[in-house]
Structure formats: C-alpha cells, structure tokens
Amino acid sequence: MWELLLVIPQKPQQNGLRDEGVRMSAEARRRHILEELTSTGRVRVAKLASALDVADETVRRDLVALEQDGELVRVHGGAVTALGPRTYETQLEERIQQHEQAKLAIAERAYELLPAAGGAVLIDAGSTALALAAVLAKKAATAKFSIVTNSVAAVSIFSERPDLSVYLIGGPVRAITQSVVPFDAASQLDQIRVDVAFLGTNGCSTGHGFSTPGPDEAAIKRAFIASARQRYVLVDETKFGAEFTHRFAGLEEVDGIVTDAAPDQRLLRALREAGTEVLFT
C-alpha cells in the first residue's frame, strides 16, 4: 500500500545569513548613492528608487542612515553633500557629457528668451551655456545677434557663423573651464552693455544664492550681471541645494532661472519671494 507523505515547507528562519544578505544589499545601495552624490552634488529619492529598483521608502531609509553617518544632508525630495561649500571642479569636457539632454532642453528654452529683433547677447562659460551657444549658432538669423563671451569653446562654435559678431573678452584662460578670467573683469565690462546675459552656475541655494568654486570666475560673473539689462541663470536640477565657496549673485539679483526640474519647495519659495522667475523646459 502506498503511503502519502505530505511535506510542508518551513518558513525560512530569521537567521544571520538572511540578515547578512539584506545588510550587504543596503551597503551596495548606499555606495551607489554616495557615488551619485559625489558626481552631481545632489540626489533625488525618485530617481534613486528607479535606478536601484527599490521603493522610495527604502531609499529614504538609506538616506537617513547615511545622514546619521555624516555622509550627506537630507533635503526635500533627496539629499545634498555634507561637505559644505565646495571648491572642486571637473573638466569642461567631462561636464559636457553629464546630463546632456537636460542641458539641451535648457538651452532650447533659453533661446526663446533672446530679443525677437536681435541684439547684444552675453554667454557665460560652462557646459549649459555652451549648449546655448550651439543652439544659437544653429538657429540665429543672419547677422541678427552680437555675441559677447568669455568662453573659448563657444568662440569655436561661433567660428562656423562668420556673419555673427563675436567678441571674446581678453585675459588669462583657465584650462579646466576653457574660460577667460581677466584680472580687470569689471573695467573691461564697464564699457559694455548687452540686452540679455545667460550665466552658468555650480550651485543654487536658499542661503548662498548662486555660487562657483573660484574667485576669478565669480568676479567675471558679477561683472556680467552688472552689464546686462536682463540676466538669466541656466540651472540643471543637480545644482539645486549645492553651495560652492564663492557667491556671485543673490537670488534677487537675476531676472530668472531656466531649469529642467522644479527645486524643492523652500528654494522655489525663496526664488519667488526674490522676484526671480522660474522658467521650465
């Protein structure tokens, strides 16, 4: 006679092996979070959850743990570096390859802000400003605009448009940003007046405004702001909440920002209270 043997699988015990697996998974996630934070200066919960294929709440727990370890500071929607005001920079070539689609979208939106009848336009150095230079070179009507810039890379782009008037500010060149940073930025630009200026930034925060790592870059950006009738800062979302050593403008000192994503509510409120328009792609 056959006997039926019913085997009921037992639930796995909550032993150290399972705990170890969870712990290692958390370590891997947190390494990824810190790598992203080192690269961009800011991380967002939703993007991390999508990249790591976990729930938003899992990412939030990771951020809490990393904040307790002093690795980052949590902000609305994500986290920023805990290093405080930063001084480091990356090569222009490297930054051009980061967030390319976001920068192109910002450039396309910024192009819409150019005077319809043409005029004098100032374009700052930087990867997002360089994207705007490329859009302008491609789309601008013949001889419609005069360009003032401190970007060596932008001049190279405009070399394909000999009909445009391009003025490169004189002075020493910083290889890392391919930007001209004259010792007499204020005096050079004191004699120049442009219709609109488009500036890049490394950081944009409630407490520190718009900031950049070097004093020379900050000085020329201040001179740019003083020489323009309208001033817009091109800000991709990775810049929100970041603070670099040298502030070049308060939130209230520019007419608007052009961005690919909304900043957190605190910064958005501060921008609006400052009378600074927030333009989205």
Evaluate the radius of gyration: 24 Å
Mean pLDDT: 87
Count of individual beta strands: 15
What letter string, H or E per element, gives the SSE order? HEHHEEHHEHEHEEEHEEEHEEEHE
SS class: alpha/beta
Number of domains: 2
Helix content bin = 25-40%
Beta-strand residue fraction = 15-25%
Instruction: Please work out how many helical segments DSSP would assign.
Output: 10
Overall, the morphology is elongated
Q: For the largest beta sheet, what order do the strands appear in spatially?
A: 6-5-4-9-12-14-15
Determine the CATH topology of the largest domain: Rossmann fold
- CATH-scheme architecture of the largest domain: 3-Layer(aba) Sandwich
Residue stretches low in confidence (pLDDT < 50, at least 5 long) are 11-24
Note the main sheet. Answer: 7 strands, parallel
Alpha-carbon distance between the two ends: 77 Å
Specify the CATH class of the largest domain.
Answer: Alpha Beta
